[in-house]
Amino acid sequence: MKWLFFFAILAICGGCPSLSTRLDLGQKPPEPQPLSDEPMLQLDVGMHTDEITKLATDPQNQYLVTGSLDKTVRIWKLSDEGKLWKTLRLPIGQGNEGKIYAVAIAPDARTVACAGWTGLAWESKASVYFFDVETGQLIRRITDLPNVVRHLSYNRFGDSLAIALGGNSGVRLYQIKDYSLVMWDKHYDGTAYMVDFDNKGRFAVTSEDGYIRLYNKKGELIATQKSQSGTRPYGVSFSPKKPYLAVGYADTVQIDIFSADDLSLIPDIHPRIENLPGADLRCVAWSGDGEFLYAAGKYYKQNINQVCIWPSYGRGSKQEVPVCQYAIHHILALQNQGIAFASADPSWGVVDEYSSLSIMYNAVGHDFRPNPEQFRVSAQGNVVQFPLEKEAKDVVQFSLESRAINFVPLTEIDKLNKAVFTLPGFDIRWNTPEYRTAPELNSIALAWNADESAVALACHSASQKFALGSDQKLRLFERSGKLLWATSTSSTVWCIALTEDQRWAVAGLGDGTIRWYRASDGQEMLCLFAAKDRKRWIIWHPDKETARAGYYDCSVNSEQLLGWHKNNSIMDAADFLPLYRYLYYPELLANIISTGEISQDLLAKSSAVPLEKALSPLVQIISPKENTPLLASQITVEFDIRSRAPREPISDFMVQVDGRQVAKERNIGRGSYRHQQRIAIPSRDCTVSVIARTKYAVSEPATVHIKWQGKEFLTKPKLYILAVGISKYADPGLKLRFAAKDAQDFAQILANQSELYDDTIVRLLLDEKADAKAIQDGLIWLRDNATVEDVVMVFLAGHGIKDELGNYYFLPVDANIDSISQTSVIFSKITDELIQLPCKTLFFLDTCHSGAVTGTKRSSLDINKMLLGLTSAENGLVVFASSTGNQVSYENPQWGNGAFTKALIEGLQGKADYSLKDLPSDSQVWVNELNLYLSQRVPELTSGSQTPSIGIPKTIKDFPIVNIKKEK
């Protein structure tokens, strides 16, 4: 089928809009618009959500900088296994404004430069933004650039910066001392693609016009060479040891090696490679020692893109390293040998000196490119289905009713209607190169912009309408070809589904989101981001009217996936503010799908406050610095707090060590303040965090890592266990089979852990012993005994219920369903006690048992809402709940436990220890390992009907729970 072939080719190409000249500015610059200070909803998933366009690193390879079409720049610490260090946020706008095509880092690693489609919206000229690496603040700009910026490069000395420009605007050279313009070569007949400096300060530029140009360190043109093996020279790299200049092409796999002195072709170096259909090796780099030549672009073997390596200065036999699924946009040499690469997945990674993939960061969200036929939606639009992986072996569904991501058994995959891509007498031409920018229906041109590329199609058999998606817009047409509406999209539209009831057009976008557009007018009404881990998801209403935007629903610990980007000025870094919980409103979102509108009645019941009141404070730790080496048992933490809500004072701040509170101060006031706080630290490596709050909002934690330089005094903690299980309720209608056994089994599996804990103290409350007073006494017992060095685990198995006011209660053995508040333990009492504990605290909650099992009738319990905020950084609880959303928890005689506890016991006995087979002696189960095991095992036991909710605060470092002995 013709469309399948197109999607296969497009997937291989990775879309590649960032490498195309059509994103360059045309002859007429856009009309300037004022910079908006209205907050804009934006994803932040800890990784880029759209194509990574460029990389940069410092000479010591301490940092790697990535720029993306998602309008962020991220700094990763190569010196710390590639962990994310900082996210830089520049002023952005709607459409293309803010897309990053170029990044560079100064040789002293103190400044990051970034640019692309930056500044054009409000100045009709492009800008380069310069950020301080340590603080993340925007410190200056280069302005008045006539076109978008395609590449940035510092020379080896850090005193000059070259800027390659789009269109016919050429290349500029700036002196960093005063950021003055040294040279501007305007004589280009096409986009200037890439720039590279040699050790002498000379630089070479590739261009769309087919020429390679060589300049001296003053910016004077000293040589020009017409491209040889291809027509579109793109990548360019000077060898650090030989007078060689490598050039890669965007239209061939052949690589040319030119003289670095005069650009004459060096005839005896021909990196040998077979020319696969549609392949190219546009990106080139020499290793740091000059021994190896690297190349990449679109070169696929068995559907995996390869990095090609030639030893002996490009003369040796080629080696291939499989790295990613889509087109590679940039590669960068590291010290001695090895490279970093960036791709359209989006992903980035490092191929080390052993030609192994040593670091790899993949996309967090789903990829909708490979299998558009498996992107399906229910008749009313309340269920959407899509494959997890490229091969479509595993398919999942998200339902607005169950509010969970569930696997779809093979027998159920085809229950939702298949996508329709054609209609009788329907000849639409759109998926070949000549029609992508000018699609036609029955030889009649469709309404289209010349700078767009068509990439997705869906038809509706009953209405005879069809939708066409591009890298910029989604459009709906009548059967005649008449345009009904066109709406701008945040990213490329990779697939579309039209609902059977003709009310919704649902699209999967390149940023990993699924968006619902009202079929009547194209208004975007809902947006879903679901992470590949199948646990984290968030769905929200993206109405551009701020007062109505941002209502959301999410799984536990997923609020952090979305926030508000707020511009400050064109000379200041933007802020990223977390969502505020007053906008958590699942009922409102579910109502949107059924009615197509925002319910004014539900909106009137919302407890939301104006955004200007709910702007979160900003905290920055001044000292100690990151990875400060210390010997003292006490330190002074100095930090700044800035209130961003003008009329809301800072109510308090807290200082945490390893995620648990060690100091707190109230009634801080409005404005900005600098504080000092003296705290004790343990005699080991640790993390120190500071969090500030207002009445309505909580700051992101500011965190630094402390390196302990003295002798470590490792003392075993005590383990305190409060396990409550109730099966034999006084009310026969509440009877359960395995809740008491669940609690007993949990306590028993942890009873003998002498190698990990100094002592294990258990308080077990089963059935008749688990009345309200005993449960509350158990919480007081934990408060009176647990110290900062200890570990507390609380396990609750029984019934939970919500009253008419929305308060959640745990039902003790003698609970009366008709007088819940008088006879039950309110959940907030339990959590308040646990939050105040000074030590690591794990909360295991199995309280949403099925009414079909118990025979009870009660209010629908929303686990997500109940746990909202409980696992946030300021509270610091690690929570393992048995189910998610409106799901119930199941028990089965074949298991001898509830599904959650069966999986929990298995995990603690060793099945969650994923390294067990590789270790010769005792091993351990860690928090994150248990998280992974439960997330997979519980859905497996319940055929996808039950998914645990697991929340681990970002300030809590992974730690072991149990030791596992291998059988001899």
Sheet with most strands: strand arrangement: 41-42-43-44-45-46
Mean pLDDT: 88
> What general form does the structure show?
globular
| Class per helix and strand makeup | mainly beta
Major pleated sheet: 6 strands, antiparallel
Number of helices: 14
Estimated radius of gyration: 30 Å
Helical fraction: 10-25%
Distance between the termini: 58 Å
Word description of this protein:
The protein is mostly beta strands and 968 residues long. It has 14 helices and 69 strands. It has a 6-stranded antiparallel sheet with strand order 41-42-43-44-45-46, with helices on one face. A 6-stranded mixed sheet has the order 58-57-59-63-64-68, with helices on both faces. Strands 21, 22, 23, 24 and 25 form a 5-stranded antiparallel sheet that branches. The protein is globular, with a radius of gyration of 30 Å. The model is unreliable at 1-22, 850-860 and 917-922 (pLDDT under 50).
